Write a sequence for this structure.
């Protein structure tokens, strides 16, 4: 019974976290909003496949804002990156899911 309650609490928590929580961004406002919307759409569309969500985000960003975009989606990871100024977005979505989008040449 305890395991069922734990899964219910986790599902309730993820349901509450349906908005993106920006951890860090140096993007211009318009680009940031578009990227956040794209991240939310991709994570909702591919909720069980982070690799497909990341591929969708990367391909869309490459078409819209030029090439060399990189995307990492997952839980419990750390990273250290070098990026172009005003081309970084790091956010949380759906509870523990972290999304990092950046551009480097």
């Amino acid at each position: 019974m305890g395991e069922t309650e734990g899964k219910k609490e986790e599902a309730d928590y993820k349901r509450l976290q349906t908005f993106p929580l920006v951890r860090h961004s140096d993007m211009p406002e318009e680009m940031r909003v578009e990227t956040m919307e794209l991240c939310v759409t991709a994570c909702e569309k591919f909720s069980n496949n982070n690799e497909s969500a990341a591929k969708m985000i990367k391909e869309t960003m490459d078409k819209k804002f030029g090439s060399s975009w990189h995307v990492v989606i997952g839980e419990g990871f750390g990273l250290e990156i070098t990026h172009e100024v005003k081309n970084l977005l790091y956010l949380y979505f759906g509870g523990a899911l972290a999304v990092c989008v950046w551009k480097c040449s």
Observations:
- DSSP finds three helices and four strands in the chain.
